Amino acid sequence: MADTLIILPTYDEIESLESVIGRIRQWVPIADVLVVDDASPDGTGELADRLAAADPGIAVMHRAGKSGLGRAYLAGFDYALTRGYRFVVEIDADGSHDPAELPAMLEIADAGAELVIGSRWVAGGSVRNWPWLRQAISRTGNWYARTVLRSRINDITAGYRVYSSDALRSLDLSSVSSQGYCFQVELAWNLESAGKTVAEHPITFVERAAGRSKMHAGIVIEALLRVTLWGLFRTKN
Ligand SMILES: Nc1nc2c(ncn2[C@@H]2O[C@H](COP(=O)(O)OP(=O)(O)OP(=O)(O)O)[C@@H](O)[C@H]2O)c(=O)[nH]1
Ligand SMILES: [Mg+2]
After folding, report:
1. Which domain holds residue 76?
2. Which residues, in sequence order, are CB contacts of 235 under 8 Å at separation 6+?
């Protein structure tokens, strides 16, 4: 068995999934892949099944319906931790995160970082094809979270990550309740607060070329409210 599991959460990503998985197999052929599909109406789950049938390194988890990115990842983490993988990767299935960065990110994790974030907002990082409003929301949100939570992480909402399984095991995952970007903030902040090593590796984030965004105002509002409450009522160790 490989020591790395790459988790791809999908909801209506039929146009992107095959090429993303192809690039993952190209850049990290040794890693296993788990697609976590929430019964996508466009047939992404069936496509994932066909890809899995042709490649023993690919597995598919079918969930009953759309219940958000956070829930999908928690199910994927559970799968990874029960099977003894050493590293667990989060990556979007829409082509925004380039699998070519994975060897470098896994190397940083192998050298001891317990969380490696593929970061847009550090020197060398960038976003491509994002309208100014998305950029402004991401930059302001990150600045706000960093300030309120007294975090040193520059891209705490980023969804391209490598976790060490030991770090995930050290968290009480059953108490993680947030979704969307907030899910990413909660995990990173909990690890940073517990004194775990968090590294940021610069990436170029490319806006999806196909399919529809699942981002909506509720995701931003949830993050804003939760981050504010955490900042007010929970202090760092
Ligand atoms: N399983 C599952 N996956 C989801 C869900 N919501 C989003 N995803 C996946 O999570 C990843 C990120 O979602 P996106 O819609 O790309 O969100 P985003 O990157 O913030 O927004 P855009 O890039 O503008 O589309 C993609 O691979 C989605 O298919 C969900 O409820 N369940
Ligand atoms: Mg996306």
Report:
1. 4-233
2. none
